[in-house]
Write a sequence for this structure.
């Protein structure tokens, strides 16, 4: 089991994401961020979400990390700023309006009973032969969704019809996240 993040860990990860987003906005190559001194390898996944004036501006993540949280957060920050296919790459003139949110993930847990999903605690990763979709734990809370609406919207995120989660070939995974953020402006 991975160690809980301390306030210092969160501050360091936010500083890394902040600098990486700034670098990406001007086309600078990402820096190599070493793990904190004495830190064991950490393969937890992470998502980096960018909001501009309260609206989604980019969100990319991975369920498995790349050796250290510093490296994983840096990679996901670059991707959120410049590779989210829903948005144009972030420009330097947007930085003052950007808020960064980091979600450090627990390992995925496959479930057979959707009643196990706790809104506000769990995110959902849905895998179907026809598509995949993920929604972070905070999304259901922000939208005021119950568990069933959350599942339906995860189906939609996967490019599938609502209710697809009931089909036998669909696998539902849950995860929790340590969520924290800051404003760049």
């Amino acid at each position: 089991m991975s160690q809980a993040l301390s306030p210092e860990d969160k501050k360091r990860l936010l500083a890394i994401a902040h600098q990486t987003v700034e670098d990406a906005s001007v086309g600078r190559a990402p820096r190599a961020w070493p793990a904190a001194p004495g830190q064991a390898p950490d393969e937890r996944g992470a998502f980096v979400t960018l909001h501009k004036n309260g609206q989604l501006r980019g969100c990319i993540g991975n369920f498995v990390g790349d050796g250290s949280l510093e490296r994983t957060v840096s990679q996901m920050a670059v991707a959120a700023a410049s590779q989210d296919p829903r948005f144009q790459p972030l420009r330097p003139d947007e930085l003052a309006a950007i808020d960064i949110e980091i979600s450090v993930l627990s390992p995925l847990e496959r479930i057979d009973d959707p009643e196990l999903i706790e809104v506000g605690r769990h995110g959902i990763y849905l895998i179907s032969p026809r598509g995949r979709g993920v929604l972070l734990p905070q999304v259901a809370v922000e939208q005021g969704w119950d568990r069933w609406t959350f599942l339906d919207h995860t189906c939609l995120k996967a490019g599938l019809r609502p209710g697809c989660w009931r089909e036998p070939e669909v696998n539902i995974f849950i995860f929790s996240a340590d969520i924290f953020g800051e404003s760049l402006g």
Remarks:
- The first strand starts at residue 44 and ends at 52.
- The chain has a mean pLDDT of 92.
